[in-house]
Amino acid sequence: MFAAGGPGGLYKTSVYPTVHTGGIGLALLAGAKAQSLPESQYGMASIRFRWNVSGTYMQVIPRFMSTAADGRSDEKEFMRPFFANSGDMNSMVFLKGYQWPFDPRKVAGGSSIVDILVYIETVIKGRRVFLDYRKNPGSLISQPVQRGL
């Protein structure tokens, strides 16, 4: 038996401080079998100042903005086209405050779709994502709904 505490450095992007590397990675590399890994929580987080994006961060309904990799150019609200209307989008953002950890059961019709959309924007498209509290989220009513992630 090996008890290592929190996952620390198990994930590439983490809210854990960089000095919290944890011991589980070493145990897994040595051939240990893991149990209860679904209990570790992961989800959106600030990575410069390491803090998870939960609670009141989402209940104020920020705009989800993305930019090109430089963090300045090609700014856009990227989530709205994936929802039938802005009310549905805002409901999922609000729920993210209560359902912070990613949960695959909450992707279809749940708040974890927000995590998936951020992942697509950052990892797949190589863009930077920011929460903007200065303005209300736009409605973008004229844009068609995109289907099929």
Give the helix/strand layout:
Elements: H1 24-29, E1 45-46, E2 51-52, H2 56-59, E3 63-67, E4 76-77, H3 86-96, H4 112-124, E5 128-132
Question: Could you please describe the fold and organization of this structure?
Answer:
- By secondary structure, this protein is an alpha+beta fold.
- The chain contains four helices and five strands.
- The chain has helices at 24-29, 56-59, 86-96, 112-124; strands at 45-46, 51-52, 63-67, 76-77, 128-132.
- A three-stranded antiparallel β-sheet has the order 4-3-5.
- The chain is globular and about 50 Å long.
- The termini are far apart.
- Residues 141-145 have low confidence and may be disordered.
Descriptive keywords:
alpha+beta, globular, two-stranded antiparallel sheet, 5 strands, three-stranded antiparallel β-sheet
Provide the helix percentage.
10-25%
Total number of helical segments?
4
Radius of gyration: 17 Å
Strand content: 5-15%
Q: Report on the biggest sheet.
A: 3 strands, antiparallel
The coarse overall form would be globular
**How far is the N terminus from the C terminus?**
40 Å
Order of the strands making up the biggest sheet: 4-3-5
Helix/strand/pairing class, anyone?
Answer: alpha+beta
- In the predicted model, the low-confidence regions spanning at least 5 consecutive residues are 141-145
How many beta-strand runs?
A: 5
